[in-house]
Write a structure and sequence with these properties.
This protein has 422 residues and is of the alpha/beta class. The protein has two domains: 189 residues, UDP-N-acetylmuramoyl-L-alanine:D-glutamate ligase; 153 residues, Mur ligase, C-terminal domain (Protein-Tyrosine Phosphatase, Chain A), CATH 3.90.190.20. Helix content is 41%, strand content 20%. The protein is built from 16 helices and 15 strands. Helix 7 links the parallel strand 5 and strand 6. The longest helix is centred in the first third of the chain and has 22 residues. The protein is globular and about 60 Å long.
């Protein structure tokens, strides 16, 4: 199976290079330790209002995934006939007359030199780095956050002088990369020196509102039923890309009305007993987990339950990262449910920080946690569900959503491959 995967990957890489060489679209590349998919969706919302744009499906950000994204194809999982069909469809794309003028591509990094391989397939004109954080996701195979930052900075090192590096102004590791590129640098964030800045943010059950500022102009932005600062960052990055493409703030504000995060990225799902689920079950890094907890904390006047699964691929940072989550949870949550052996460190830290141990429960699987949550929920509760992909925390959401028939549309990992995978 590995040989077949390697073979098809090489074929799709070759087809992707042919398609890019033939059609010459403008490429926007996105990397970072959190927020890549949300930023991609926000950019698509902004640019698609005026331009011919295509984005990568789901989180296609590996060599294979990036090639499929360029070709506009979907994974065939373990179906060799599906992959063979994709080869034919890929060739059609190469010679098609209908190819997007702008491609928005995620570029993921799990190990050293991953980005080198991706940049051999597609070289962006605009490079966006969303965030690194003190303990990045996928740090297990790196010596530390500095090495992760160096790997991700390759995205903007290869940019030409006519390109643009769009950097998170508030993330010290990211903003420090500005010295590593020839391209024009634009910063987005909350800091006063950012080129595109957010201020006066507010989070409620209706969504997130803020004021967006650029060169002395200000417009109000409302992200309806979208929650958390991380989505403000996605919107700011998208606005920066819109400005690069000649759009004004009013056009950008209007286009952001259509922005909806992908499933499992802090989406509001109606829960049983008239409760509210903040479904952030797609994946988890320390940075994204802290942001989700901050969003839950800001929502006022309701009982708050945190259901938290292990964060994986953190290597030597595993214990300290999970303890930091427990410390935050203890400050405001009414109940804390953990899933997996690593998250027990979070539970132990929450107790050490003064949280009542009777308000904490730890389980081995997400299914067990989902059943416990069902017994615990009361009307009006706010429930945050968060954990790494392999923890399958979407099962907790599905067990407790008011309308499980909508799971396929609302939750992550609902296709046949994941449903059949334990």
């Amino acid at each position: 199976m590995n040989f077949i995967k390697i073979l098809f990957t090489r074929i799709f890489i070759a087809e992707a290079k042919m398609a890019l060489g033939r059609h010459k679209p403008k490429i926007i590349g996105i990397t970072g330790s959190a927020g890549k998919s949300s930023t991609k969706e926000a950019i698509f919302s902004v640019l698609s209002s005026k331009y011919s744009v295509r984005k990568s499906e789901k989180s296609y950000n590996s060599e294979l995934g990036l090639s499929l994204a360029v070709l506009g194809l979907k994974t065939a999982w373990r179906n060799p006939f599906g992959w063979a069909k994709n080869v034919i469809l890929g060739l059609r794309t190469v010679f098609s007359r209908d190819f997007a003028k702008i491609l928005i591509l995620e570029m993921g990094v799990d190990r050293p030199k991953d980005l080198d391989r991706l940049l051999k397939i597609a070289r962006p004109e605009i490079g966006i780095i969303t965030a690194i954080g003190e303990i990045p996701v996928h740090v297990e195979f790196f010596s530390g956050s500095d090495e992760v930052a160096r790997e991700k900075s390759k995205l903007i090192k290869i940019l030409s002088a006519s390109g643009f590096a769009v950097l998170n102004y508030d993330d010290v590791a990211v903003w420090d990369m500005k010295k590593d590129t020839r391209a024009r640098v634009l910063g987005f964030g909350f800091g006063e020196g950012a080129d595109v800045r957010a201020a006066h943010e507010k989070i409620s059950l209706d969504g997130t509102t803020f004021k967006m500022q650029h060169q002395g102009s200000t417009v109000p932005i409302k992200l309806e039923y979208v929650f958390g600062k991380q989505h403000i960052y996605a919107a700011l990055a998208a606005a920066t890309v819109g400005i690069i493409h000649g759009m004004n703030l009013i056009e950008i504000a209007q286009s952001l009305n259509t922005y909806k995060p992908p499933p499992g990225r802090l989406n509001l799902v109606n829960g049983i007993k008239n409760s509210f689920i903040l479904d952030d079950s797609y994946n988890a890094s320390p940075l994204a987990t802290h942001a989700a907890l901050d969003a839950l904390k800001e929502l006022e006047g309701r009982r708050k339950i945190v259901v938290f699964g292990d964060m994986l691929e953190l290597g030597k940072f595993t214990v300290v990262a999970h303890k930091a989550v427990g410390e935050r949870v203890a400050k405001f949550a009414d109940y804390f449910i953990t899933v997996g052996p690593r998250s027990r460190f979070a539970a132990e830290e929450a107790i050490a920080r003064g949280m009542d141990k009777d308000k904490i429960a730890s389980f081995s699987t997400s299914r067990e946690a989902g059943i416990r949550l069902k017994d615990l929920i009361q009307e009006g509760d706010l429930i945050l569900i968060k954990g790494s992909q392999s923890m399958r925390m979407e099962r907790v959401a599905e067990e407790n959503m008011a309308n499980p028939e909508e799971a396929e549309r609302l939750l992550a990992r609902q296709d046949k491959y994941w449903k059949n995978k334990e």
